[in-house]
Amino acid sequence: xxxxxxxxYDIRRxxxxxxxxxxxxxxxxxxxxxxVWCNEPASRPRTHKKDPFDAQPMSVRDILMLLNQDxxxxxxxxxxxxxxxxxxxxxxxxxxxxxxxxxxxxxxxxLDTCGVFAASLITYLLPVVDxxxxxxxxxxxxxxxxxxxxxxxxxxxxESLLGFGAQVHLRCPLVPGVNDxxxxxxxxxxxxxRVAGIEILPYKSLAMERHQKAxxxxxxxxxxxxxAVKSQRWLDKMSTFGxxxxxxx
Length: 249
Description:
By secondary structure, the protein is of the alpha/beta class. The chain has helices at about 60-75, 90-105, 120-125, 140-145, 150-165, 180-190, 205-215, 230-240; strands at about 5-15, 25-30, 55-60, 80-85, 110-115, 130-135, 170-175, 195-200, 245-249.
């Protein structure tokens, strides 16, 4: 289990926005989605010989060494390990090994997921994930247009996790003029009664810069990072729909 190898494109130590406390966030390569605003183009497997985003093979033991170096920060802040991507379940065997070892070693664990994975994985994830950070990206009618997949598997994962009593936070990226319709804000607000919390993630133009660096075409060059006033208006609108436990991520 400790020698299982995964492909990691980044490790962010001291992360503050990937779950509670100070986190060590491991980003795994691979993703079934193709979001037009993708903030992590490095998550897509690449073929260039000198790609700046080439993933590195790492063992569970390698990552455990880093976790132990960061343990004092985790314990002081209520933090721990977050596995993100891309979509971590694309490397399911490695993911489960890493999470099992992390739990055995006493680390709090978060899984940051788009929710598109085999339903059979959930029973293996439940014992080793303390908090699921689940993406809710767009309203059903345009979800496939914006992400490449329809929303059905995402909602099925959400329903399954809630049915098992899992702790779930929704993460909702909002892009001005793309997926911030009043109808979508109302749908997010309605879900707030069923989950432990919701994070609104305002679009950042960093996505464009990362695509340019990777040489990947980007569709949203014309979109600017929303102002603080705009972001607050989203929260205010959701509040009128009865949203609770909603904040900016």
